[in-house]
Structures are given as C-alpha cells and as structure tokens.
Amino acid sequence: MSELPGDLLYTNDHEWLRREDDGSVTIGVTDHAQAALGDLVYVELPEVGQDVQSGGDMAVVESVKAASDVYAPIDGTVVAVNEELADDPERINADPYGDGWILKLQPTDGVDESALMSPDDYQALLDEEDA
Amino acid sequence: MGKKTPKHHKHVEAGARIVDFGGWDMPLHYGSQKEEHHAVRQNAGMFDVSHMTIVDLNGERVRDFLRHLLANDVAKLADAGKALYTCMLNEDGGVIDDLIVYFMHESWFRVVVNAATRDKDLAWICEQAAAYDVVVSEREELAMIAVQGPQARELAAPCISDEWRQAALDLKPFYGMEAGDLFVARTGYTGEDGWEIVMPAAKAAPMWDQLLAAGIVPCGLAARDTLRLEAAMNLYGSDMDETISPLEAGLGWTIAWEPADRDFIGRGPLETMREDTTRRRFVGLLLEDEGVVRNHQRIVVEGIGDGEITSGGYSPTIGRSIALARVPAGEYDRAQVDVRGKLLNVRIVKTPFVRNGQIRIDV
User: What domains appear along chain B, each with residue ranges and CATH number?
Assistant: First the structure.
C-alpha cells in the first residue's frame, strides 16, 4: 500500500481533494479506490460550467468490473475536466493522485474542512476496512 | 470465511484479490484483469477452478439415466472420453444448471457442475438416480486447473507424465482422458484452446507452481468472466436460471429433440415453448456509443417492448462494451440500453464476439 499524499483532503467515498492556489479544488479517486475498481475502461465526465451539489453524483468511473459514481464533496461549479481520460482512463490506475485527476471545481462557499478527512483520518478508515 | 481451494495459499502469495464465489474464497484477479485476459487470448493463462463440482455417476443403467436427466442426449457419446455440453432441466423446462458430461465407459459417466448450484444439483441428481440404481459420488478430493490459450497445451504438457503426454496432446476438442492420477480434457470456458486438468488435491499446489514456472499467467474470476462473455458462453444465474428455458437463453442448440420418444425431464413444456412465436430472443449486443453496459440494464426496442441485459461488460479484446441480452420477439437489429437514465445505442450481432483470438463481429 502506497503512502497517502499528505497535502490532500479525503472523503468517505475514497475521493481526494487538492486546494489549488487559484481557489479551485482538484478532485480524483484514491489509490485504494482505483485498486478496488481494477482496470478502468471509461470515465463519464460532466460539462464544464455545470453546477454540482455536495453529495450529488458528478462523474462515473467504469472499470472492466463495475461502474462507480464520483460524488461532489462540496458545492461548486465544474471549471475543468481531465479530457485525457477519454482516451486513456487507465491514467487513474497508473497515477490516481496525479495524471489521473478527474475534474476541478470552483467552490460555491469555500471548502468545509470539518466535513472532510485528513490523511491520518483516511488512513484510519482504510485500516478499519482492512480489518 | 469461505471454503478454500488447495491452491488458496498460492493465490495469496501471488497477491490475488480474493472474493467470495458460491461459498468459496476465490481469486478475482492478481493485479490486472485486462492483462490476464490478453494473456489467455494471446498466449496462455490458468485458472483455479477447484470450486467446480465433479460428480461421478456409476451403474449399469447410467446412460439411460442421463438420457432422462439431461436435455442433450448422451446417446451422442459413442467414443470413450467424449464430452457433451447440456442443460439439466426441471419439470417446467427451466434450467437447474448447465454442465459438461464425459463418457468414461459404459457404466461410468462424469459430470462437472457449477459451484454455486452444487447443493441443489446433487439433491436433484440423487433424487432422479434412485430409480436407475445409479451411484452418485461427489469427488471433493479432486482439484481442477484450467489452462487456456493458444500456447496453453504446449506449455502445460510437461506437467503430464511421459507415459500419457502424447495422448493428452492428441486429444481432440471436447474429449477427455485419464492420465495416471490426472484427468485431462480439451475443454474450457474462454473460447480458446486449452485443457482442464483434474488432479488429487495434494497435487494442486505443486502443479500450479510448475505451470507458473512454464510461463502460464495466473488469472482470476474477473478475467474468466470477460473471456467467457466474449466467447458468448452463458453464465448460470446470470443468463439463465430455473425460471428460464434453454430456448430463451440461446441454448436451443443443446436440446436434442430427436429421437422424439426420448422422455427427458422438461421435454413437454419445452415442446410447447418451441412453437411459441412470442418467446423472447437471446442475442449478442455491441454498444455503439461510448460507455459500458451492465447486467440487468433495461433494453428498449422502439415500438416493440423492453428486454434486459443478462451479461454486460467491457470487452478487452474489442475495446468496446458487449452484452448478452434477452429481448422481445420480432425482427430488428438495433435497440437502446438505459444506462443511468441515458439511452445508448446497441446493435444486435451474431455471437461469439471473439473466438480463438479473433474478433468475429463487425466493429
């Protein structure tokens, strides 16, 4: 199991968030999630400009095995999507915290960190699931 | 925790992701199910299929018994070792299970049934066997490894003793033979050439190591599923069950209607269904839009009605999504699938999708 990047926030649904300098938030799925899904074959992305609400689905990642929703962790507007995933969804398998990013949101009301998990909390969740 | 095959520790050693399958702890994949899939199509892969249930049937009247029990006709099995794929039906013509039956000799046939249906299969077989004085013996002490792919037999051949190796290599498709304490059959569930090798459980782990050393790639249930889907081989419980007749599961070809006086279980209701022009079709689908279609998604045939995907997924060989589906009667070659509220376009294609490494449909 690889180290969790320490500069990210995490969710119960095995997604990660990175707060960018311009105020936007980059979102992807964690290494644990990609490993559980297996080889990814298709990613359904939202339109840029679409508004999303915390808890609502905003993208779908499909592996050979299963389809899995990607939920919005915060309220916001989609300002970018990773177009590279259309031709190469396995980027998510290869580099979930880097080239495998899924989309960027501009938060409507900022990021409520109390509703998200620190790397330590997320690691504790993974340890619990393994147990 | 489920039952473990004799090779369980080997799978864990190899980094397998383990899942429950019919009460067994089985490897889902060992890393990449796509790479495992391609290994079988292009070279050679192996599957631990020890969860499959092997049942020996012995008795003077075993052939008569099987001609009554099974929808296909074991009268077709004239040569020792010849195998037959067939459904075992209930009185209503629904499928209790699909299985392979091997003709060993006149008082011994061997059947291999699904793991998930083991209990009900054994109960049904025993119930029917009593009238024929057939002895039903489950061979729990045996393990099974399937080696599949264009190079599988050649790479696996050294695992068979000198005495039997050439005869095993000379086996024709859909034949099996005893080879010392092994049973080797040129059968499988992938659409590729290969063997299914049955052995005493104690031999399973060393044989797995030997096959691994020969360059055969360990493959999990996930690759097994995409391979069988491309080959358009039905999966029990997904494509058919006790409420579905073989006629609505694309298995009409496995029903032996002749001789007309053979009284096999389920024959009466099947005869009626055979004449029913409204019975559903069982078809192969190719998704023409982007995305992946999945089991249980609804199929919409405009102006005709709805159907359902019974096995859907991504085809690693084709690079597109394919499916098996039960759809309404009628002449049409296009339909739509409801994927999370969006209607995606599918085309009906002649199966198999892939066989012996080659794509068989127009893409």
Answer: 3-49+140-230 (3.30.1360.120), 280-359 (2.40.30.110)
